[in-house]
Amino acid sequence: MKFRSVVEPPEPMRGLEVPPEVVEALGGGARPPVTITVNGHSWRSRVAIMRGRHLLGFSNANRRAADVGIGEEVEVELTLDTEPRVVVEPPDFARALDDDVAARAAYDGLTDGRKRQHVLAVESAKKPETRRRRIEQAIATLRG
């Protein structure tokens, strides 16, 4: 599905408005997982609903990659994303999860977004000791 939308400022949680008829035509429910393409740049997301509007987040990084600015009107191509969303755990984090049954069970029950937060925290550590500490913190948090 293609449509035109104005790039709105990212605060408070805006980006690209999706016409309701486009969301309905996708057939994936009110908040379908989608692949978005703007100016040849694609990313995966989900349609959000805020104050009765269907919206797509459009981060600074995605705006730069698509070479568009706030206030510009752009053509948006939206497709239903039926591929499974998989979060790849770094090997050291996976081992720590596997060594703690309760933490593994809690982690496996998280949404992909929450899993991704834990993985990004671990992967963004610059020093090995920071990485170990973040893994320990994640395990403690998951254990409850």
Can you walk me through this structure?
- It holds the Pfam family DUF1905.
- This protein is 40% helix and 26% strand.
- By secondary structure, it is an alpha+beta fold.
- It has two domains: 2-80, Elongation Factor Tu (Ef-tu), domain 3, CATH 2.40.30; 91-143, no CATH class.
- A four-stranded antiparallel beta sheet has the order 1-7-3-4. Strands 2-6-5 form a three-stranded antiparallel beta sheet.
- β5 (48-50) and β6 (53-57) form a beta hairpin.
- α4 (101-108) crosses α6.
- The radius of gyration is 18 Å and the shape is elongated.
- It starts with a strand and ends with a helix.
Second-tier CATH architecture of the largest domain: Beta Barrel
Q: What structural class do the secondary elements suggest?
A: alpha+beta
**What is the first-to-last residue Cα distance?**
43 Å
Report the strand count.
7
Number of domains: 2
The first-level CATH class of the largest domain is given as Mainly Beta
Q: Please, what is the CATH homologous superfamily of the largest domain?
A: AF2212/PG0164-like
β-strand amount: 25-35%
What is the count of DSSP helices, taking H or I runs of 4+ residues?
6
Our Rg estimate from Cα atoms comes to 18 Å
Strand and helix order: EEHEEEEHEHHHH
CATH topology tier name of the largest domain: Elongation Factor Tu (Ef-tu), domain 3
- How helix-rich are the residues, as a percent range? 40-55%
Q: Segments where pLDDT lies below 50 for 5+ residues?
A: none
Query: How does the major sheet shape up?
Result: 4 strands, antiparallel
Compute the average pLDDT. Answer: 93
What is the 3D shape? elongated
Pfam families: DUF1905, OmdA
Protein name: DUF1905 domain-containing protein
Organism: Phytomonospora endophytica
